[in-house]
Specification:
It is built from five helices and eight strands; from the N terminus they run βββββαββαβααα. The chain starts with a strand and ends with a helix. The protein has about 210 residues and is an alpha+beta fold. Helix content is about 25%, strand content about 20%. The chain folds into two domains: about 160 residues, Phosphatidylinositol 3-kinase Catalytic Subunit, Chain A, domain 1 (Ubiquitin-like (UB roll)), CATH 3.10.20; about 35 residues. The strands form two sheets. A six-stranded mixed beta sheet has the order 1-5-2-8-6-7, with no helix packed on it. A two-stranded antiparallel ribbon has the order 3-4. The chain is elongated and about 85 Å long. This is PB1-like domain-containing protein. It comes from Eragrostis curvula. InterPro entries: PB1-like_dom_pln (IPR058594).
Length: about 210
């Protein structure tokens, strides 16, 4: 069984040290748009399955979730992706399609108690067919403004030690026109303060 279905508004469970149980957070019913840093999952729902036991976790558990959420008829059109802990949709999605993939999930569940998966109902991640979604919304953009298509990357799951050691890192603010102007103003103010301090130390000119 794929754990216990969490009711709406119910508090998440607390897992103690040494507990082999974990939670799977399923994002489903929506669709991916964009690519790279612009990728997002919209119009979806979130369902939590609590109390899954790592000792019995396998791909069968994911297949049961698919059936319980009424997506059994989608068959091969439905692809399941695991979002690696500490990473984003732009670079952290990895396909889960067999017991070999769920073994890695099982190995990290002793440290990561909330594993996040996404249902891709339109094979967007592998096919990057987002230009065909929502009536081709970028067709009217100037050619220079249209996003550059990227070739799909089929990457294997990293090993357990990499996943459990991975944590989000602070990213530097992008250098836009506004931040450039701010940096120039800061340097200008700094120079003016430095000149005023030097003049004060030197005393009034005779």
């Amino acid at each position: 069984m794929p754990g216990r279905f969490r009711e709406e508004g119910e508090a998440p469970p607390q897992y103690g040290p040494g507990d082999t149980r974990f939670t799977v957070e399923v994002h489903h019913g929506g669709f991916f748009v964009g690519a790279g840093v612009d990728r997002a999952y919209i119009d979806g729902k979130v369902t939590w399955f609590d109390g899954l036991d790592a000792d019995f976790w396998s791909f069968l558990g994911i297949e049961e979730m698919i059936l319980l959420l009424d997506y059994g008829l989608e068959g091969e059109n439905l692809h399941v992706y695991w979002l690696l802990p500490g990473m984003g949709l732009s670079d952290g999605l990895r396909i889960v399609s067999s017991n070999e993939d769920t073994v890695i999930m099982k190995q990290v569940s002793h440290k990561v108690k909330n594993l996040v998966i996404y249902f891709d109902h339109h094979n967007h991640v592998a096919g990057h067919n987002w230009e065909d979604i929502m009536a081709n919304p970028i067709a009217d953009l100037p050619k220079a403004s249209q996003p550059r298509r990227q070739e799909p990357r089929e990457e294997p799951l990293p090993d357990c030690s990499f996943i459990t050691s991975n944590r989000p890192v602070a990213r530097a603010m992008p250098l836009t026109t506004a931040t450039k102007a701010g940096s120039i103003n800061k340097r200008k103010v700094g120079k003016e303060k430095g000149a005023a301090t030097k003049k004060k130390k030197d005393g009034p000119s005779k």
